[in-house]
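Subject: sequence -> structure tokens, single chain

Hey, anyone have a minute? Need the predicted structure for the following. Not urgent.
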Amino acid sequence: MKDWQVFIACYLLGCLTFGPILARFKGVDLRSVGSGNIGATNVLRALGKGYALATLLGDGLKGSLAVWTGALVLDDPVSIGICGLCAVVGHNFPVFLGFRGGKGVATSLGVLALYVPLAALGFVVVWLTVFRVWRISSLSALAAFSAALSIVFVAYKEALPVVLVMFGVSLLMHRSNIRRLIQRTEPRVGSLK
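Reply:
Had a minute. Here:
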């Protein structure tokens, strides 16, 4: 199997977005509630904790599955990481949703978990710590990505190009959140109805 074929398969895997799938069972259009995002934070607002947890796990597992698939058929560590990155891009720009997806936080964490596990641990610790203090999901994600990137720089230098691009994609997807954070208008979780 050619590398590009694996990359396309991983992109399509990433396109399976669990938030909209679960919301459809409840008759809810995620685009019309809360922040309008399809990720776990907005699922929490719209459907509650159980659905949010299922979305988080589903979106995270597809990131891990993409890395695992890459490791099965590819030899190069960078190519394996690109498989994970393709899943993140699929989540953020899913062909099945008109290329309007989520922000890729859970999927990125799933990629990190198999690709650079120590960085994934740092991601989780920082996300939980920042969220506990400020209760702002976007701030927690950006801080967690920064921590993961720092760990990769020290402990997984061969993975640095892939994780750097993943961090860049996260910044791109969070650009409106970053604007609101600077303006101090970014809502805390629980404040959007």
